[in-house]
Structure formats: C-alpha cells, structure tokens
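User: Let's play a game. I give you a shape written as tokens, and you guess the letters that built it. Ready? Here's round one.
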C-alpha cells in the first residue's frame, strides 16, 4: 500500500490571515500625495461669480472636498488602500471641476461646467454615493438640487451667449 504524503493545496486560515496582514502592512509604504495646493482667493468660483449664501453652503458641504483645493482629508485617507481611492477621487474631481480655479475657465467652458453641475446633481450622480455614505451631511435634498440648478441657470445667463 502506498501512502499519500502530499501537502494540501489549500492553505490554512491562519496562513491566509497572515498573508493578508503582511500585504496590508506592506501597502502602507505606498503613499499617494495628498495635496491642497494654494488657492488664490481672486480665482475661486465665489470671487468670479455671484454665489448666494445658500448655494455657497451647498457647494461647501457637498462639493468642496473633491472639487477644490480645500479638501479636508479624514484620518482614513492615510491608510492604504483607502488612501489610494481617496486621492484618486479627489484628483479626478479637481480635474473635472475646479472651484478653486474657476477663473481659468473661459465663458463657454464655464457655461458648460455650470450646466454639467446641474445635470449631475439632478441625476443623482453627484455627490458620489460613496462620499455621501461617509459624509451624510453632503447628501442633497430636493430643495438643495433646485437651489443649485436655479443658481447655475442664473449664472449661465449672466455669462451671456
């Protein structure tokens, strides 16, 4: 009779946990740059356009962290892999809509950004559901959406054709 002394192909749960723990610790060495570039107050949306206080409050509460240079980085933004996702989302958000550098947009581009702002909040695409999950106060009510969209229409009209 031949006995089978082969090693099982499935590692033990202890080994799986150990490998995961080692990978998580090693991942902390990969730190993406969390940035808050300096902001020239004369170039912000609030400086360039007339933003009513209620709309400014909505933008600060629901848009600022990803679409401005005034990101408030939570503690978990220093823990991989969350840090990778957060930094990526903020960088992408700033690329798509730059509230801190609104003056860089010419009239057609500013008009388009205002239109997209309304479209995305109406569709529920912004703020991102993953952001709202962790920042409950960022959720937009119907009144918030109406106020934001009414303002974007006024701001687009003020820019002219």
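Assistant: Ready! My guess for every position:
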């Amino acid at each position: 009779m031949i006995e089978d002394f082969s090693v099982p192909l499935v590692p033990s749960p202890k080994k799986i946990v150990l490998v995961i723990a080692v990978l998580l610790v090693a991942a902390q060495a990969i730190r993406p740059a969390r940035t808050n570039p300096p902001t020239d107050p004369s170039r912000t949306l609030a400086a360039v356009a007339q933003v009513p206080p209620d709309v400014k409050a909505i933008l600060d509460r629901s848009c600022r962290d990803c679409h401005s240079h005034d990101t408030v980085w939570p503690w978990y933004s220093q823990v991989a892999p969350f840090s990778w996702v957060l930094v990526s989302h903020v960088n992408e958000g700033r690329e798509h809509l730059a509230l801190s550098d609104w003056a860089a947009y010419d009239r057609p581009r500013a008009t388009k950004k205002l239109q997209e702002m309304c479209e995305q909040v109406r569709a529920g695409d912004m703020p991102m559901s993953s952001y709202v999950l962790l920042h409950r106060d960022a959720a937009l009510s119907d009144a918030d959406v109406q106020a934001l969209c009414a303002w974007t229409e006024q701001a687009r009209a003020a820019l002219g054709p």
